[in-house]
């Protein structure tokens, strides 16, 4: 599995290509259980912006390096030295301190949301400890699968705050039960892979991290073989439908496809179906 040459400058992420047109992104701070420093979420934004525009990538797999954790969330020790917990220096008043904090939170949200905004489908493979920011990140992915040892938690209440990087906005739109969402978010209790599967948070559970990664790669290979115009359009339209009415989404779809249907991909796919041959699609 070769490291992608144009992605070697990232300090906290290892980006490899296990198969053509597929990028595997590993959160790469295993000695600290992949806990996030500010530099890591800033890199995350840059990385997923690059992946989004890269014609050599059609699908992204996101996982965590090491055996113990996808991520334990925010590195609380490092965060204690940042603007979140620092006292207002020099008598800065409440309004000005709040403005500084809001800007800090907005940037953090925007960096994590880069995963969701990535034009390419993102398959998140979770294992081991997957708490706090793990939920924010995985909620931004398009497909979530996990190992059976995965331990999830929306942990923010236990550190004295409401989750503010996306879980409370996205999780209620992902799973089948709003009662369950309030249960896990308000109590900050752990839940396992079987419970995550039962409510629809993940779509597959596998015996080990290796098996989950193998399943993620198989999914990615299948998606990468399809028309990138069709795949990226489908992601865009599904995400739009989540946040808009049916009528608004139908209108958006008609405008979107008035351009997308003019791609060569439509004709290539139709002809290959009739001829029972494997289609080949140009890079996008």
UniProtKB/TrEMBL annotation:
Keyword line: Acetylation, Fatty acid metabolism, Isomerase, Lipid metabolism, Peroxisome
Subcellular location, record wording: Peroxisome
Pathway named in the protein's UniProt entry: Lipid metabolism; fatty acid beta-oxidation
Pfam families: ECH_1
InterPro entries (UniProt xref): ClpP/crotonase-like_dom_sf, Ech1-like, Enoyl-CoA_hydra/iso, Enoyl-CoA_hydra_C
Keyword Acetylation among UniProt keywords: yes
Family that this chain belongs to: Belongs to the enoyl-CoA hydratase/isomerase family.
Protein name: Enoyl CoA hydratase-like protein
Organism: Lasiosphaeris hirsuta
């Amino acid at each position: 599995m070769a490291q992608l040459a144009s992605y070697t400058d990232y300090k906290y992420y290892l980006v490899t290509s296990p198969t053509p047109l597929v990028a595997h992104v590993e959160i790469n701070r295993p000695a600290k259980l992949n806990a996030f420093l500010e530099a890591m979420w800033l890199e995350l934004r840059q990385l997923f912006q690059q992946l989004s525009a890269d014609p050599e990538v059609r699908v992204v797999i996101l996982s965590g390096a090491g055996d113990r954790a996808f991520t334990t969330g925010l590195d609380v020790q490092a965060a204690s030295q940042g603007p979140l917990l620092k006292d207002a220096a020099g008598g800065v008043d409440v309004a000005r301190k709040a403005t500084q904090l809001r800007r800090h939170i907005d940037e953090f949200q925007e960096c994590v949301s880069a995963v969701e905004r990535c034009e390419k489908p993102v398959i998140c493979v979770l294992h081991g400890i997957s708490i706090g920011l793990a939920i924010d990140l995985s909620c931004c992915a398009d497909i979530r699968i996990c190992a059976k040892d995965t331990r999830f938690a929306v942990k923010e209440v236990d550190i004295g705050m409401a989750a503010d990087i996306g879980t409370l906005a996205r999780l209620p739109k992902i799973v089948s039960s709003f009662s369950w969402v309030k249960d896990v978010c308000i109590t900050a209790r752990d839940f396992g892979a079987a419970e995550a599967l039962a409510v629809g948070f993940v779509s597959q559970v596998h015996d080990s991290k290796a098996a989950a990664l193998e399943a993620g790669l198989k999914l990615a290979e299948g998606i990468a073989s399809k028309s990138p115009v069709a795949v990226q359009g489908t992601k865009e339209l599904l995400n739009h439908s989540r946040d808009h009415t049916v009528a608004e989404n139908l209108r958006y779809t008609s405008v979107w496809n008035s351009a997308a249907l003019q791609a060569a991909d439509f004709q290539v796919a139709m002809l290959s179906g009739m001829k029972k041959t494997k289609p080949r699609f140009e890079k996008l």
